[in-house]
Design a protein that fits this description.
Layout: E1 3-7, H1 12-25, E2 28-32, H2 42-48, E3 56-60, H3 63-70, E4 77-80, E5 98-101, H4 110-115, E6 120-121, H5 135-147
Parallel strand pairs: 1-2, 1-5, 2-3, 4-5, 4-6
């Protein structure tokens, strides 16, 4: 099963919308603490609508705790950052991929990027008028790309 991993998300509405995408695509949602909001915040559930109870939600106290418990292979991890050297079109995503996203305002912490630089990918943007995409939109695009070879046609 493919998993969406959010490292220290800050905006409850984004997390709710991402949870809804996870339900739609039968993906697990992994949240890495600290969160910028309370998971019971009504804004999380409002964005996730009535799908929130169906989310396969797993929480970890830290990135290190996630790595220690899950022990992901290098070819399972895909860290999404706007400055990554390759686009998200290039990799072959295994069915058990971890798609990793950082905070809305600061991205993935530098110490994580440093260790996993080879696993970084970006979503290409054709215009120089936009600095970044909304996290929920980025996750949806990445999730569909990762599943393209694993979904029935």
């Amino acid at each position: 099963m493919t998993s969406i991993v959010l490292i220290q998300p800050e905006i409850p509405g984004n997390t709710g919308a991402i949870g809804r995408t996870c339900v739609a695509l039968d993906m697990e949602l992994v949240l890495i603490h600290p969160l910028g909001f309370d998971i019971s915040d009504k804004r999380v559930k409002r964005s996730g609508l009535d799908y929130w109870p169906h989310i396969r939600l797993v929480e970890f106290a830290s990135w290190d705790a996630f790595i220690a418990e899950r022990k992901p292979r290098e070819n399972q991890l895909f860290l999404f950052e706007e400055y990554a050297p390759r686009t998200f079109y290039e990799p072959e995503y295994p069915a058990d991929a971890y798609l990793v996203f950082g905070r809305e305002t600061k991205g993935i912490p530098p110490e994580i990027v440093e260790v996993h630089r080879a696993q970084m990918v970006s979503l290409p943007m054709r215009s120089d008028k936009v600095r970044s995409l909304n996290l929920a939109n980025t996750v949806a695009a990445a999730a569909y790309q990762a599943l393209r070879n694993h979904l029935p046609h």
